[in-house]
């Protein structure tokens, strides 16, 4: 779960910079955590998106669906 805490144009630019240099993990304006389920609430209600797709407004609940993702990688022959 990534929470973007930037609220000023400068902070937003700093986050974009960290994305551009592939160091989002070092941005002071992004909070990271792991979870199997999460509920997002806000007052006032805020828009919610996932991977760039709009999903409505808060409150929203999300959970991990075990086994829902299949990953195929090339065989590594030694």
Describe this structure in words.
This protein is flat. The mean pLDDT is 91. Strands 1-2 form a two-stranded antiparallel sheet. A two-stranded antiparallel ribbon has the order 3-6. The chain is built from one helix and six strands. It has one helix at residues 9-20; strands at residues 2-4, 30-32, 37-40, 47-50, 53-57, 60-63. The longest helix is centred in the N-terminal third of the chain and has 12 residues, at 9-20. Helix content is 15%, strand content 29%. It is of the alpha+beta class and 78 residues long.
The backbone outline, from C-alpha atoms, is flat
Q: Strands across the major sheet, in which order?
A: 1-2
Could you tell me how far the N terminus lies from the C terminus, measured between alpha carbons in angstroms? 36 Å
Helix content: 10-25%
Number of strands: 6
Show unreliable segments.
none
Mean pLDDT over the full residue set: 91
Indicate the radius of gyration in whole angstroms.
16 Å
Structural class determined from secondary elements: alpha+beta
Order of helices and strands: EHEEEEE
Largest sheet: 2 strands, antiparallel
Provide a count of the helices: 1
Oligomer: single chain
How big a fraction of the residues is strand? Answer: 25-35%
